[in-house]
Amino acid sequence: xxxxxxxxxxxxxxxxxxxxxxxxxxxxxxxxxxxxxxxxxxxxxxxxxxxxxxxxxxxxxxxxxxxxxxxxxxxxxxxxxxxxxxxxxxxxxxxxxxxxxxxxxxxxxxxxxxxxxxxxxxxxxxxxxxxxxxxxxxxxxxxxxxxxxxxxxxxxxxxxxxxxxxxxxxxxxxxxxxxxxxxxxxxxxxxxxxxxxxxxxxxxxxxxxxxxxxxxxxxxxxxxxxxxxxxxxxxxxxxxxxxxxxxxxxxxxxxxxxxxxxxxxxxxxxxxxxxxxxxxxxxxxxxxxxxxxxxxxxxxxxxxxxxxxxxxxxxxxxxxxxxxxxxxxxxxxxxxxxxxxxxxxxxxxxxxxxxxxxxxxxxxxxxxxxxxxxxxxxxxxxxxxxxxxxxxxxxxxxxxxxxxxxxxx
Length: 409
Fold this sequence. Notes:
Blueprint: H1 2-8, H2 11-18, H3 29-33, H4 36-49, H5 56-64, H6 73-101, H7 104-116, H8 118-123, H9 130-152, H10 158-177, H11 182-197, H12 203-226, H13 241-247, H14 251-272, H15 281-295, H16 312-315, H17 318-341, H18 347-365, H19 378-408
């Protein structure tokens, strides 16, 4: 159902490519109801495959009847290809994060864990917004971590700024796919604080990274404005009342309107689906623990049943995955201290900060007990769990080796 909502609005690709940033369609309801990047990706895929893009009437018909379908089955298959490719790119980016923060083994294992995660795999095969958002967020963090390592090691320079500029591009694309992409900016801010708190580095290194992070934020804003003409469009053609109200607003007011619209949609979902609604923090925390680490973790079922909030048959994996994720968080703190003592940038602390921020935001915000809201915690905890497993393995090998040496002595 939701996939065809995006497919029905793929015509925005043609409007964007036409260069007309003041076309009245940029102020239509579909322009701000659904995020633009998935529509562009789907439209480009259909264009390359020679499939016609549905027009504005298709979008209107979908809102009248959300069970509407457009085109032959091949159209849906083609529309899913960008999510599949970006899903794979996200796994590679997580592998790069793991290799940079810990070692190559951890990175490869984390990438495989994410690929095998049933929730991530599901959304990486849907023509929607989740896979593009996660992929670009992971790419942004991989680039930013490379810059952070250089800064903390005292090697701030043009390469660091180039990495952070690239990270800003990826952040902008992630936010264009879903506002979850703002987690990347929050994570970069936490990395600035970590760099400031490391007494072993020169304060100038912290300052350069802080400036580079500001550059990343500025680039992200520029990308968001450039690829979302809704933010700046001022059509001259006749407009209805809602479009005229938006046309009189500045970019900041329009962005606030987007946030308010998403909040309104979440509130309406809570009314329409009360059995899935989460209105108290305690309920959200329990759902994240049971579902986020259970049915939506790597041990969860391939197909989940959201009508059952707590279900041991679906959520049993939480008894394994949650302790392993928390153990990974503890190991990241320990390993970061060891890195610092060895004179290396404590990159594992950066990963721990990302995981804590993602977990906190999901727990505090979670409006519904639905799968897609729990996607942001899957990648960081896959990485932490992989680091814990290899950390224990290395510890056991060291212990066995020490006993053998003692026995020989």
